Amino acid sequence: MGVLAGRTALVTGGGRGIGRGIAERLGRDGARVAVHYGSNEAAADETVAAIEASGGSAFTIGVELGPPGDAQALWEAFDRQADGLDILVNNAAIGTSQPFGAIDEREYDRVFAVNVRAPHFITKYGASRLRDGGRVVNISSGLARNAVMPDKMAYAMTKSALDVFTRDLSKVLGPRGITVNSVAPGIIDTDVNADWLRADEAAWAGAAALSALGRVGTPADVADVVAFLVSDDGRWVTGAWLDATGGSLT
Ligand code: NAP
Question: What are the catalytic residues?
Answer without folding.
Answer: 155
